[in-house]
Amino acid sequence: MKFRNLKIEKDILKLIEKKGFDEPTIIQARAIPRILEGKDVIAGSATGSGKTLAFVVGLLHNHRDSTGEVQGLVLAPTRELAQQVSRELSYFCGSRGYNVACVYGGVAIEPQFRSLEKADFVVATPGRLLDHLGRGSVDLSKVNTLILDEADRMLDMGFIDDVERIIRKTPAKRQTILTSATMRGEVMRLSQRYMHNPVKVFGKKEVDPSKLKQVYYDIPRNRKLSLLTYLLKKEKSDLTMVFCNSRRAVDFVTRNLQNHGINTHAIHGGFSQKQRDSAMNKFKSENVRVLVCTDVAARGLDIENISHVYNYDIPRESKQYMHRIGRTARAGEEGKAINILSGEQHEDFRRVIRDNGVRVDKVKTPELKTSRFPGGSQRIDRHRGRERRLK
What does pTM read for this prediction? Predict the structure, then answer.
């Protein structure tokens, strides 16, 4: 199937083709026709499968003229995803004279006042949008298309109350499109409350299991960082993501990898927007090959050519494991997921294997040279929910 078979308007189709896209992904082929019919749509597919383009096409199809009022609203869980969606939407809006406002926290609010004054479309994170609603700087009473992007992640991050408050500020009569990588109970309950007879469309997972090798090392806690350093130096890799469960762990791992000559950058929720943009620009430009991150910071990032994913910390929630490894083995490319497992994380690891039904092979730990890491190693005190250093 080609994009031209989806009854997309000619000027939008030309812009799609200009980006080098000819054939839609599975989720695009299934979602776009329903969106163009004006249906409420639930689009379930893996991160990176093309859901953004699907709802951007719908936004443009539903709106003919710039009115100076907010007609379309996209809610996104993270600043990075909001920026990514805004860039995509702005590309398609240019020829029609639409104005796009991107609203998120961590930056000065004054410039956002000006962009909202003439916005036709708003892409926003929930917290900052509520701030603007409280200040009276945005009016959602004319919104006729609402997008809840990565809804499962917004719920994971505790935004459910904020999201519902925002939805109630929009007209009851509107088109609602919900995208999500998972379709668990909370997501479906949200759709039942705020969507009208939604059509459910699903795409296959973009990860090719036959191309993804999953392994784990069982190693004492105080040797984890030595093993990670060894593997990053020995494994032949393109871009690599290393996942940790906390901000402090990200900082600790990043600092020590840099001290051992590995070109590394970090990203987590404690970074300012300038720091986050700098990290991503360096990573995408290949000046930095290794990105150490938390789940919250990584979700929504548009990153291609990831060959290796390391779980320095095993995720506490099983579904996060699939989100992490879904970064690699895409589009026919091979990928590798490497889990570095220490004693206190066996329970989490067994749950990951059981809940996701994946096969992860144990690998013999290589002989490691003793490495010095300032500050000792770290572990999570699971009962008190804090980190402590081990000397």
Answer: 0.65
